[in-house]
Design brief:
Number of helices: 3
Strand content: 15-25%
Number of strands: 4
Shape: rod-shaped
Radius of gyration: 31 Å
Largest sheet: 2 strands, antiparallel
Order of helices and strands: HHHEEEE
Oligomer: single chain
Amino acid sequence: MPDEHQQKAAELGFDLTKQFLTLAFGGIAFVVGLSFSTPDAVSTTLLWWAIGLFSASSIFGLLFLMKGVNHLSEKKSFDIYDKSLRCLSILQIVFVVVGVITLCPIVNHRPPPPSAVPAAKISTIEIHINGQSTLVYPIQPEKDVRVEFNGSNYTFYSKQPVANARQTP
């Protein structure tokens, strides 16, 4: 009968390997999802490096689990300190750590959100009515703006200027 401590160590080793597998698959999902949602956030080179590192970690983790199960079934041993198992687990951990380090520049280099336009580039038109109310309408510099007053109704139009069009007063 195997030693109870060896059995606990084997269970812990397999559980830890599964955690690193989850982290590696999560890293792949994160990078691929980020590249689809915001393509400019991840360079192609960094994307493939991260996918490659996390994939290698996943492969070594799966090999560790397969070799460990084979070790348990054939040798009837819970010894996870076998040289091949140690090498596979070390390689899995190294590749996942390097993959996480590869994520640092990706997370650090985030494009600014579209609403974070500098204040100097935002133009507005302000209309004061009878000193009681004020209308503020954002305009874009490359568009023409027309405001129509019809009694108490106000209509704003914003359109792209047409080339070679006549200006009407």
